[in-house]
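Our preliminary data section would be incomplete without showing what the modeling component actually yields. Below, a chain of 442 amino acids is followed by its predicted structure, encoded as tokens that our downstream tools consume directly.
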Amino acid sequence: MKILFKNKRILTKITFIKNNYSTAPKSLATLRIGEKDYRTDDYTNITPKILSYLNHNLHLKNDNPLSLVRRRIVNYFYSSFTHRGNPTFSVYDNMSPIVSTKQNFDDLLIPDDHPSRAKSDCYYINSTTLLRAHMTAHQSELLRAGLDNFLMIGDVYRRDEIDSTHFPVFHQIDAVRTQRKEQLFEQHPDLHIFEKNFEPTNPHTFKNSIADPTKQSCHTLEATKLMEVQLKNHLIGMVRHLFGEDIKYRWVEAYFPFTHPSWELEIFYENNWMEILGCGIVRNEILANAGPNNSIAYAFGLGLERLAMALYKIPDIRLMWSKDSGFLTQFQNKNVNANIVYKPVSIYPQCTNDLSFWLPSNSSIDTFTSNDFYDLVRDIGGDIIEQVKLKDKFIHPKTKKHSLCYSIVYRHLERTLTQAEVNKIHKEIEEAATKTFNVVIR
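Predicted structure:
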């Protein structure tokens, strides 16, 4: 069986050996994305629904709120960092989301056993290729190209829960800023980036350590602290540029495999602290593997959806994908710094159906992966799925059979759903779950 999926910029063909539900890896033979064929294997877990989101580039569409936030951030960096009147930051906002595991993990020092590599977290095309899980996947290739200050902007893909703030596709801005000794210590030429016993020309003779929470062992404390001050000042300036001078913020120590030390920045929003970005000093191994090892760098990454929802009071992340003119015109032809508050076009009622099933004897409530079920529901129900929640776990006291119950909330963003059409979709989900996971509907 051959299935074709089309949108304006991509033609995707998936060839199945058997007429099975698309998330079952063993049924896949070849996967064609654009003009390229990819082999499939036991890692293949990408679905037709996820493939349909490729190349929409919402962050580049002028009538989308994500584009407004993107332009505001780019403008901030363009105005804050110039050399002889020209911006020093370059922008890369149209790179392919298909990357290698080397780009997404290995180049960023992410360990083999790190949970972010799991099939339950990522959309794999095969064991060596996936849809990028973060824009940082392009960091090393741009560093190898000789770039020193750059922004990477695009869509990223992660398997996740389903609710008003989570979607399998979202958009990120990642940035890197590097500085050499003469730039960082322009006023203090007697200071150095690297410790005396570290040889930048031969970094592999020195085992870099992150045991010290204040710095990497190869860096001097002066270089690390100065970069930290610059990084935090620049990001606080960006947050004030977006949310106003009076915004409350705080720094929280964090851990990322590719930076050390690392921090998260939180803002006080609607009476709660909300994390909006992660950042830190780039691990020197990454810079050394990418080219001349004569600089120190900071990096950060943030999600555009979270900022847009906060800035414009957008209640549901699915609205970013809406084609409804009532939504889009609220952001069309607006001044990039306009104070826009989203006004609901209409509010349509929810329909909620529960789905309970017995797991097969070789599975349990501890080993069943909810993200697999979420993908199945999303693939069949599409964007009318507002939320899926694990409602109940149950082990029969006599038979010891394991059961799960999920609550599925349906809501269309542009019209009222009838219970009859919801029941039809719900029945399709039941049948697909039975076939895919070998469960028995209760």
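The longest strand covers residues 169-180. The CA atoms of residues 76 and 155 lie 21 Å apart. Preliminary results of this kind motivate Aim 1 of the renewal.
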